[in-house]
């Protein structure tokens, strides 16, 4: 028996073991929760992609029902201190889903974007709670750096989408705004690509070349539909990157940083 063991009270050793087990259980809870939230994010994305042209179809209604059930399940399974957080998520998702069937295409995308953004911030909050239990400072700092650049890129993409909408409506000086937001978004993409895998960087490069075309084009040379398609493809890349980062950072064992990203169109 070592000197440390001999002088350590038994109650303290039992407490330390109990605390470690409790921490492991909390980590596992957060890990499962993050996985469930990631699934919800993809369910929301699929609903947005598949049913914008048929919002009142039976399959669209079924998809919305599945999303709502998923939210209810997470609310039932969350820890007591998290209940207000998941209650708000459930309420906002229910309100968004019930409003969608009767919306215009533009309003549909706006509602989906707000619901997705709210979900992303909740995922981030749960992920930070996971790191507080995990006590891995390096991993947390790396995630925090990724998160800041990723969310900056998402915000730049939103401004690009807003400029594209003004352009499609024929607003004055709308193309100049599209051009400016393209430059800002391209800069954010370059910053984010430095923190991603080689395959993800290749996906960025394919989109990057399309932003080059926008930046060097004259007003009217690129239709609004093409601008919207570029932004949609970028959304898919960003979603994959966020999902991959969460998967890597919350894995029980380290995972290789590999991303296979397929865009809807090139």
Characterization of this structure:
- The protein has 266 residues and is mainly alpha-helical.
- The chain has helices spanning 3-7, 10-51, 58-77, 83-99, 105-134, 137-168, 174-193, 198-215, 224-249.
- Helix 2 runs antiparallel to helix 3 (58-77).
- The longest helix has 42 residues, at 10-51.
- The radius of gyration is 22 Å and the shape is globular.
- The protein starts with a helix and ends in a 17-residue tail after the last helix.
- The model is unreliable at 11-19 and 254-262 (pLDDT under 50).
Quick recap of the structure?
This protein has 266 residues and is mainly alpha-helical.
What amount of the residues lies in strands?
A: under 5%
Q: What profile does the largest beta sheet have?
A: none
Shape: globular
Order of H and E elements: HHHHHHHHH
- Structural class computed from helices and strand pairing: mainly alpha
Radius of gyration: 22 Å
Q: Report mean pLDDT, rounded to a whole number.
A: 84
Helix content: over 70%
- State the end-to-end distance: 67 Å
Low-pLDDT segments, ≥5 res? 11-19, 254-262
SS field, number of helical segments? 9
Total strand count, please?
Answer: 0
Keywords:
mainly alpha; 9 helices; 266 residues; single chain
Please render the helix and strand layout as text.
Layout: H1 3-7, H2 10-51, H3 58-77, H4 83-99, H5 105-134, H6 137-168, H7 174-193, H8 198-215, H9 224-249
């Amino acid at each position: 028996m070592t000197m440390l063991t001999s002088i350590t009270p038994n109650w303290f050793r039992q407490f330390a073991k109990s605390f470690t087990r409790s921490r492991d259980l909390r980590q596992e809870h957060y890990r499962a929760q993050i996985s469930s939230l990631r699934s919800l994010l993809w369910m929301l994305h699929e609903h947005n992609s598949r049913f914008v042209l048929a919002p009142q179809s039976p399959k669209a209604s079924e998809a919305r029902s599945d999303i709502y059930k998923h939210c209810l399940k997470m609310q039932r399974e969350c820890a007591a201190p998290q209940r207000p957080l998941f209650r708000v998520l459930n309420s906002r998702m229910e309100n968004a889903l019930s409003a969608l069937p009767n919306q215009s295409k533009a309003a549909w995308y706006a509602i989906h974007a707000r619901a997705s953004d709210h979900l992303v911030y909740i995922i981030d909050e749960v992920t930070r709670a996971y790191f507080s239990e995990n006590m891995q400072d390096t991993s947390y700092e790396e995630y925090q750096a990724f998160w800041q650049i990723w969310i900056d890129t998402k915000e730049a993409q939103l401004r690009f989408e807003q400029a594209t909408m003004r352009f499609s409506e024929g607003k004055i000086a709308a193309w100049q705004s599209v051009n400016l937001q393209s430059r800002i978004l391209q800069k954010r993409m370059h910053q984010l690509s430095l923190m991603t895998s080689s395959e993800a960087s290749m996906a960025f490069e394919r989109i990057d070349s399309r932003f080059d075309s926008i930046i060097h084009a004259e007003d009217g040379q690129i239709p609004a539909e093409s601008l919207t398609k570029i932004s949609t493809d970028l959304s898919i890349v960003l979603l994959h990157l966020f999902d991959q980062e969460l998967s890597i950072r919350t894995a029980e064992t380290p995972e290789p940083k590999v991303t296979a990203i397929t865009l809807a169109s090139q």
